[in-house]
Structure formats: C-alpha cells, structure tokens
Amino acid sequence: MALTKKQRAELRMKFGGRCAYCGCELGEKWHADHVEAVRRNISNGYAMDRPENDTVSNMVPACIPCNLFKMSSTVEDFRSRISTQVDVTRRASRSYRTAESFGLIQPTNAPVVFWFEQFQGE
C-alpha cells in the first residue's frame, strides 16, 4: 500500500520521529516497516504472499539498516538475530577479538529491548 504524505508523516512520529527498533532519529530517508511481514514473492513478480498484512496499523517507522536487517522476520526472531551479533562478529573479526582482549569492547549480554517497547508517547 502506498502511504499518503499525511499517513507517512503520522507514522514517522509514532515513536517520536525515531526508529521503532533501535531508536535512532529518522532522517529524510526511512522505511515504513510491516511488523508482520507481507513477504514479497520473487517468483511471482514480487506479489505479496500476505496482502492482509499491508495495512497502516501493521506499520512502524524504521531506519533503513534495521528494516533491511529485519527482512521478513517476526519481532521475536529479529530480537533473537540481534542478540547473536556479538558472537557472530567475534567469530568473524580478528579486529573485534583484539579490541575485546584489550578491554576496548565489553559484551554485556543485555537483553535486546526495542525503542517501541520503551517509548512513552506524550
């Protein structure tokens, strides 16, 4: 669904002009993310597999990196994928392991809490 300018402006301010996931301030370019994915089927000309999810009430404002990383994951799957990133980076990056061994990086094992879970609208 194509959002009107008014719908897009309202959606952008849903969480104070911030990404629903990481909480960064949204700039000029941001995505309207479907919380419950519509999933586009490449073999069917990018038609939606779940068109019933293509509603404004199922959308949140998201920064481009969060939306691209989330892909068609559920919120809980997205949370789980984020929580694995320290270990993924540690395995893949010698630079990370070096910085960690010198105390420059200290993983906390903190739970992943999204901005929309913390945001208190006025």
From TrEMBL:
Which superkingdom?
Bacteria
Q: Which UniProt keywords apply?
A: Endonuclease, Hydrolase, Nuclease
Q: Does the keyword Cell membrane apply?
A: no
Show the InterPro entries listed in the entry: HNH_nuc
Q: Which residues are in the HNH nuclease domain?
A: 6-68
Q: Which SMART domains match?
A: HNHc
Please list which residues make up the signal peptide. none
A single GO molecular-function term is: endonuclease activity
Name under which the protein is recorded:
HNH endonuclease
Give the organism, scientific name. Enterobacter sp. (strain 638)
